[in-house]
Amino acid sequence: MTQNDEQQFFLGVDGGGSKCKAIVMSMNNKILGSGISGPANPSNGLELTVSSIVESAGLALKDAGLENVKLSDLVAGVGLAGMNLPSLFTQMSDWQHPFKDMYLSTDLLIACLGAHQGKDGAVIIIGTGSCGFSHVNNQQFIVGGHGFPQGDKGAGAWFGLEAVKHVLLSLDGIIGTSSMNIPLLKCLKVSNSVELIEVTAGKPASFYAQLANIVFTATDNGDEIAMKLVKDGAKYISDVARLLVQRNTMPMSLVGGIAPLLFSWLDADIQEQLSKPLASPEEGAVFFAKQQSTLLSQQC
Predict the structure, then answer these.
(1) CATH architecture of 156-273
(2) Phi and psi based region of residue 31 (left: phi greater than 0; alpha: psi -120 to 50; beta: remaining)
(3) Which of 20, 104, 109, 276 is least surrounded by Cβ atoms within 10 Å, i.e. has the fewest?
């Protein structure tokens, strides 16, 4: 497949604390290829973020078989974690990107646009971090999204950190041993509390998010400590959803890697109000790029 003057390719990028996902789409919204690279949250480093974006874009082009298409041919919609912070948004806006055009937004907005195919609605993102977000009549409302470790309750990084904290308490003899102990120590290749502290101190959200599955596996074994953690996280997410519902009556979806693990733990009334996402955040990023490109052309 080659590019011609009548065909424009779009790039959709969803960057978060653990990975950066990109897709290449045609003008008629057909996904041609995809790519995944490392973390792309500017709060953890601008250089790593832009490197991950470029890498995932290149992988998506390769997957699409678009050998004759360059990054400079692509109109890119880029949604990143942390873009709700003005200082980070400014830094990313100043990036001398390699694309034909780049339209920058939050990971929240592109997830919402994807979930509802460009229409108004709400999403609760539960991945490495957590946040509630609605987009109605061009008005945005955010609940949470304060970042790790001060926020992001109910998300992957939070579950991972809580698991480490509980294992440390059990190693000190303050609480009983959990079925999380052995798999967590094995995963991190440590055997005591001192080694556990050494290997976890100062680590970013993506590091802790990789430990989240240990908590959910322990709940399958009936572990009371793990079940208490999951119930606590699920209550927070249910409360976030309830705030969104109280503000507006609209479609609401749950998205992110932890979403399928936590869904059944949410309050029953919240489960009933959640609808399946219609498209991915990366597709939402393309919807955003097309919307912004159209608005810009109308202004001209």
Answers:
(1) 2-Layer Sandwich (3.30)
(2) beta
(3) 276
